[in-house]
Each structure stands twice: as C-alpha cells, then as structure tokens.
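Budget justification aside, the reviewers requested a transparent look at the raw inputs and outputs of the sequence design task funded under Objective 1. We therefore reproduce one unedited record. The lines immediately below are the structure tokens for a 151-residue chain.
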C-alpha cells in the first residue's frame, strides 16, 4: 500500500495525483474527493486554515493507514491546504485506489468523515462583517461516529 500525505499552501492538481495511483497493483477503482471553499450564507470572502503541520500530518497518515487496512486499498493520497484561501479555492483532496469500487467509495467517505473531526485544523471565515472561527458541527461528529467499528 502507498500512502502520501501533504499539507501546504500550494494548490494541487487532481490529474497529477490521479496519475500517481492509477494502475497500481490490483487497482480497479480510483475515487477522489475535492473539497473547496464555498460561498455559503456567511458570504465568506476568505477562509483561513491553520494547523500544527507535524501533528496534522501524523493524524492524516494514521487515518490513511486505518483506511488501507479496513478497506483493502492499494493507495491513499491526502492533500490538505493551509493559509488564506479565496472562494472556490481547493482545500482538500482525498484520493483512494482499490481493487473494487465499493471499498474505494467507502474508504474515501471514511477518510473525509474522520478527518473532519480528528485532524487538528482550525478555520477562520473573513467577510464584510468581520472574522470568526468556525466551530465543529454536530453533523460532522455524527458522520464520524458511524465509523467507530473501523477505528
């Protein structure tokens, strides 16, 4: 299994990461999720993401390892951006490769659900009304709890 975790300010290329995993081993399915800064009801003009990189990288690596073991993956790539991001900017990429589509889809969802609650990232929204830190959502906690059998 191949695990690749990157945290940084630079944007990422979905195509580049896809090309790095397609055709590995018994890869019959590649599933990718890209999260981006949305223009929601808060009318955010920017989203600032912060973390302590060594800790966040270790947490993401551990989540990827759990996914590999529990969903029989041949590869996981997680890219998470930090810094000040504008509307529609890419934030996170989760890309998984597996022999079968079902496990690839489940693994990608598992990684995102657990990442949202376990990875130590902090978000601040800035707009015409000022700035505010984004608090954890109950819906994210509920989504993560459904994977407790995997953890």
């Amino acid at each position: 299994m191949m695990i690749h975790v990157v945290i940084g300010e630079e944007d990422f290329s979905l195509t580049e990461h896809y090309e790095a995993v397609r055709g590995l081993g018994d890869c019959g399915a590649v599933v990718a999720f890209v999260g981006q800064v949305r223009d929601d009801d808060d009318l955010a003009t920017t989203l600032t993401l912060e973390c302590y990189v060594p800790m966040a990288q270790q947490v993401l690596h551990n989540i990827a390892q759990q996914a590999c073991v529990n969903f029989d993956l041949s590869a996981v790539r997680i890219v998470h951006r930090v810094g000040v991001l504008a509307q529609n900017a890419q934030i996170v990429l989760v890309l998984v490769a597996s022999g079968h589509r079902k496990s690839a889809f489940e693994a990608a969802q598992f990684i995102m659900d657990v990442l949202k609650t376990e990875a130590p990232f902090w978000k601040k929204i800035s707009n015409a009304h000022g700035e505010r830190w984004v608090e954890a959502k109950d819906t994210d906690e509920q989504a993560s709890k459904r994977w407790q059998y995997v953890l």
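The mean pLDDT is 91. The domain at 2-145 is CATH 3.90.1170.40 (Aldehyde Oxidoreductase; domain 3). Computational costs for records of this kind are itemized in the attached budget.
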